[in-house]
Specification:
With 875 residues, the chain is α/β, with parallel strands linked by helices. The chain is built from 36 helices and 33 strands. Helix 35 links the parallel strand 32 and strand 33. The structure holds phosphoenolpyruvate and magnesium ion.
Length: 875
């Protein structure tokens, strides 16, 4: 038997969503449950995949099955396609495995032509309705299938209304509708050079093709990338008998949710329009009435609908989003699906469903998207204003949240303006450590260059500040204090709004609402913690961040980037002196200045993390982020080091690197200048001894970055151990400490067995590991990755979601080899992937002990880790 590509609604069920798509599976389920569903069939996702395999063609076998099922559908409905006596009209709608609202295409009223429309007019005794449906069909088919711009048709309608001197579509009569049909067809012919297709079978096949095609349209591709929906899933197509909400005042159409999708309140929520079709509700041509009004308008229908809604919710055990149509007083269900909801609603619904006894805690944990928690932790735009706002540009969604403020171009201005009470958005070509204080006071940060692991992105995420990075279309003129974007100039002081969750940039003010953690949050997160196996630590460099992370439930610090401790105030000067020093004596002097800062911070971190491990990573400054650029800074360093300004310039010149990310950083610095490791070890151990005396339970872990060879690790470890053991012995105390390494260079992963024999722990630095495995610069990849997505070479940014096949393989192999060589080895991850839900799931699968991420992502990681454990248990 040939392969089955087409299924009647009566042949499927809700568990067949891979094959039938979400919509098809749910239509089948409602059919099975005896609900009033207009009948039809689903063309499977396999047919879509086949369509692409066949070079975007529907092959003969699939075409034959579609026509065969059309015949079966005619029998079930007692109507005939293309038959003017008793015409069957259909809707053709997409339906992927995961719901992608509004991303793909829909065609309604298909099956009409000049002859059938007359039949429909007679059959329904309603010629206005028949011609209204016909003109709607031509409009939609031309737009969706033939790609003629929709606004052109709207213009024709507006023109017609103007000629008639009326305002509403409903005021156009049969003759007007007939005239619109004529005008639409003429417009079609003029633009397409051929007549509008009049054969309904041709219309059907073209419409199916259009839906398949829409799987690959740019907005679907972007949506898929954002929601991690694989391209190879394909979409199903549903062909369903039309019922007409536009057939008079006893008809209508609407959308409703079983609970409020914004708040989670347990009350039917939605709206409907009398005498209208679905697209009218969406297009907003008329203002719909709230669903509660239906109780007055059509009490019987309302009662039936409310009962069905309740049944559906109990059946699916989740809030349902339903579409319905009323045709001459009879209710039809067109769709049901688990409804999209805000983060607050998601939490409330999950908790309520447990309290109502509908689901258990384990199931509830799966009901909230981890990424959604962002919305509870960061400010969000006012939804109504956002709807009306225009996107003027797009960058990378580097750090979530919404920001609105006046444009400033320097960190100093940001500070000054903020002091005066202004809200500012800091716009920079890229950021560097000297911008830190400006970044701290800004509502948001927008950069021209830099990827998801660039300085701006990493630091902003750490602070919980909204950031859009790498918007290459922006042209900044620092001198004129303005930038251009999309042909428009934005000056200092102009309002701008940026969305760090989508990367969208708006050239206007959009009010924001502050973050609001709902009452159910603590309870819900407690459930998540019961199930997860992975520990969740934080990447924190300051006591303030560490404190924030503890509040979000962090169980230790997985990465303290010690070079980040020098971003603020005078500290960067000491750091620069250290870098610029060209002899050991000067370097030691600079290190002596650095040490008290370090020790003080370490003490504070240890105190914050009392009882939890604190991993301190030794200096790893990519030089380009730390070298001074301003003349005044250079002059100051010259004075401090007692050398000429020219000399400092010379040193800076000599330190210039073509590829600083692969340059003299990480343990390479210590190999050249062992005194750095001595100083840092002293600061860590002295800090630990001090806080231990105060009764703090301290677990220091020293982490050596950028190791690629075990001898390199051993070289640094020897210095650490010698320094630490002497300090501990001199102090006459007992103190346990560990020395481990980052695995962030492919060579380290490949020689993991050797390194593990000497190391106490591995922590995967997947930012660098991704950079070096792909050979993609962390700072520059954003510029060309779009072409990789467009050409389906990569589906998502490997700096955001771990590349399971390549980088992931290195992680898995080296973790296994490491544990075989050293059973006590513990394993974590501290690259940005540590806070990304899919990457967290991967970390769970390969058996890491912990993930570490920026403070504001700790709750996300906790939930993602719990979901990974629950899914594994259920698999
Ligand atoms: C990494 O490379 O993944 C890492 C955590 O270190 P950094 O981002 O500081 O290079
Ligand atoms: Mg690194």
């Amino acid at each position: 038997m040939s392969h089955k590509y087409v299924y009647l609604f009566s042949e499927g069920n809700k568990d067949m969503r891979e094959l039938l798509g979400g919509k098809g599976a749910n239509l089948a389920e409602m059919t099975k449950a005896g609900m009033p569903v207009p009948q039809g069939f689903t063309i499977s996702t396999e047919a879509c995949t086949q369509y692409y395999k066949d070079g975007r063609k529907i092959n003969d076998e699939i075409q034959a099955q579609i026509y065969e099922y059309l015949g079966k559908m005619e029998e079930i409905c007692g109507k005939k396609f293309a038959d003017p006596e008793n015409p069957l009209l259909v809707s053709v709608r997409s339906g992927a495995r995961a719901s992608m609202p509004g991303m793909m295409d829909t065609i309604l009223n298909l099956g009409l032509n000049d002859v059938v429309v007359e039949g429909l007019a007679k059959f329904t005794n309603n010629p206005r309705f028949a011609y209204d449906s016909y003109r709607r069909f031509i409009q939609m088919f031309s737009d969706v299938v033939m790609e003629l711009p929709k606004p052109e048709f709207e213009k024709i309608i507006d023109q017609k209304k103007e000629e008639k001197g009326v305002k509403q579509d409903t005021e156009l009569d049969t003759e007007d509708m007939k005239d619109l049909v004529k005008r639409f067809k003429a417009f079609y012919k003029e633009n397409k050079g051929e007549d509008f297709p009049s054969d309904p079978k041709v219309q059907l096949m073209e419409a199916v093709k259009a839906v398949f095609r829409s799987w690959d349209n740019p907005r679907a591709n972007v949506y898929r990338r954002m929601n991690e929906i694989p391209y190879d899933w394909g979409t199903a197509v549903n062909v369903q008998a039309m019922v007409f909400g536009n057939s008079g005042d006893k008809s209508g159409t609407g959308v409703a949710f079983t609970r409020n999708p914004a708040t989670g309140e347990h009350k039917l929520f939605g709206e409907y329009l009398i005498n209208a079709q679905g697209e009218d509700v969406v297009a907003g041509v008329r203002t719909p009435s709230p669903i509660s009004q239906l109780e007055q308008d059509m009490p019987e229908v309302y009662k039936q609908f409310a009962e069905i809604a309740d049944r559906l919710e109990k059946h699916y055990k989740d809030m349902q989003d339903m579409e319905f149509t009323i045709e001459n007083g009879k209710l039809y269900m067109l769709q049901t699906r688990n409804g999209k909801r805000t983060a607050n609603a998601a939490l409330k619904i999950a908790v309520d469903l447990v309290h109502e006894g509908m689901i258990d805690e384990e199931e509830a944990v799966l009901r909230v998207e981890p990424q959604q928690l962002d919305a509870l932790l960061h400010p969000q735009f006012d939804a109504d204003t956002l709807k009306k706002a225009t996107v003027v540009g797009k960058g990378l969604a580097a750090s979530p949240g919404a920001a609105c403020g006046k444009i400033v171009f320097t960190a100093e201005d940001a500070k000054e303006w903020a002091k005066k009470g202004e809200k500012v958005v800091l716009v920079r070509r890229e950021t560097s450590p000297e911008d830190i204080e400006g970044m701290q006071v800004a509502e948001g940060i927008l950069t021209v260059r830099g990827g998801m692991t660039s300085h701006a992105a990493v630091v902003a995420r750490g602070m919980g500040t909204c950031c859009v990075s790498g918007c290459g279309e922006i042209n900044v003129d620092y001198d004129a204090k303005n930038f251009t974007l999309g042909g428009k100039t934005y000056n200092e002081g102009d309002y701008i709004s940026i969305d760090g969750s989508t990367g969208n940039i708006y050239g206007e003010a959009i009010p924001t609402a502050p973050a609001s953690i709902a009452g159910d949050f603590g309870l819900f997160m407690g459930w998540a913690d019961k199930y997860r196996k992975l520990k969740v630590r934080t990447n924190a460099d300051t006591p303030r961040d560490a404190h924030q992370a503890r509040e979000f439930g962090a169980e230790g610090i997985g990465l303290c980037r010690t070079e980040h401790m020098f971003f603020e105030g005078d500290r960067i000067k000491a750091m620069r002196e250290m870098i610029i020093a060209d002899n050991t004596e000067d370097r030691k002097k600079a290190l002596d200045k650095i040490m008290p800062y370090q020790q003080g911070d370490f003490e504070a971190l240890f105190e914050e993390m009392n009882g939890y491990p604190v991993t301190i990573r030794f200096l790893d400054p990519p030089l380009h982020e730390f070298l001074p650029t301003k003349e005044e800074d250079i002059a100051e360093i010259a004075k401090e080091l007692n050398v000429t300004v020219e000399k400092v310039h010379e040193v800076i010149e000599s330190l210039h690197e073509f590829n600083p990310m692969m340059g003299h950083r990480g343990c390479r610095l210590t190999v050249t200048y062992p005194e750095i490791a001595e100083m840092q070890t002293t600061a860590v151990i002295n800090a630990a001894i001090n806080v231990q005396k105060k009764g703090v339970n301290v677990i220091p872990q020293i982490m050596i970055p950028l190791v690629g060879e075990v001898k390199e690790f051993d070289f640094v470890k020897k210095i650490v151990v010698a320094t630490a053991d002497k300090l501990i012995a001199d102090a006459g105390v007992e103190l346990k400490y560990e020395v481990g390494t980052m695995i962030e260079i492919p060579r380290a992963a490949l020689t993991a067995d050797k390194i593990a024999a000497d190391a106490d722990f591995f922590c995967y630095g997947t930012n660098d590991l991704t950079q070096m495995t792909f050979g993609f610069s962390r700072d520059d990849a954003g510029k060309f990755l779009d072409a990789y997505y467009d050409n389906k070479i990569y589906e998502s940014d490997p700096f955001v979601h771990i590349d399971v096949d390549g980088v992931g393989r290195l992680v898995e192999m080296s973790a296994k080899a490491g544990r075989e060589a050293n059973a006590a080895l513990h394993l974590g991850i501290c690259g940005e992937h540590g806070g990304d839900p899919t990457s967290v799931e991967f970390c769970h699968k390969v058996g890491l002990d912990y993930v570490s991420c920026s403070p504001f992502r700790v709750p996300i990681a906790r939930l993602a880790a719990a979901q990974a454990a629950v899914k594994e248990k259920r698999a």
